[in-house]
Amino acid sequence: MDVVTGAFGYIGKYITKALLERGRDVRTITTHPTKPNSFGTAVKAFSYNFNNPDQLTRTLDGAESLYNTYWVRFPFDGQTYESALANTQTLFQCAKRAGVKRIVHIGVTQASVNSDLPYYSGKALQESILSESGIPFSIVRPTLVFGQEDILVNNIAWLIRTSPIFPIFGSGLYRVQPVFVEDLAEIAVHQSTSSPGAIVDAIGPETFTFQELVTLIADKIGKKPRIVKVPPAVGILCGQILGLFLSDILLTRNELKGLMDELLTSRELPNATTKFSDWLEKNKSTVGSRYSSEIARHFRWSAS
Hints:
By secondary structure, the chain is of the alpha/beta class. It contains eleven helices and 13 strands. It has helices at 11-21, 53-60, 81-98, 118-131, 152-162, 181-191, 210-220, 232-246, 253-260, 276-283, 294-298, and strands at 2-5, 26-30, 43-47, 65-68, 102-106, 137-142, 144-146, 165-169, 175-176, 178-180, 198-202, 208-209, 226-230.
């Protein structure tokens, strides 16, 4: 039996699917255990219970591997990077008490404790907590993850569909290396039997500048927006204004800086096979057909 955090979310969903296809028993710990369960009775859902370590330990009891996707994209509604790190500490302590044999942790490329971006420094601190936990572990660091439930690519396509103008922050020449979420899941599951302590990047086979990525999406969905290059500060301000109307946070300053600093790339050779351009061709009729809200997905969902 394995435990996956966030099996009803994005990356966790595809890790769960890959495990079930291998005949594994899976349970999930999640913020919303009453969310619709596309896996039916095959996956039992439990709350994180960070405030009840004994209960969390019981949930993890009997697990051979824990696949951890837990983190926060930005501080919101009382959740902070500091609280996420404290919760990570609790999760790994409970996993050790429960006798979990391996933790496969999903990080991010170029995470560093010296980063001035709290998302990236926090992810590096998560890795430090893991390495000090005493549990055999593997770390998988993806670049820009894309797939059906992706928010960034989907909302780029949505904006292209709905607006005659698309803003490019700065030069637009900074690079990204998109990796398909199903490829990421396969890499993560493979790491459960690799040598302990392995740290691998998950990298797609194509590299684009951000402007090339936007242009490709526009071409595939049959739109020709006017691309306007704007200073990053102006772009963030426009995003904040649009976010007020959408009741969401589209892009943070830290995310933009990470993107422009090419932190969503790797110096390693690609180890995923799915091309973003091929996936986009297959999904061009649906990508960006509706706006995807980060806040609605993770903070505002309710069973009602």
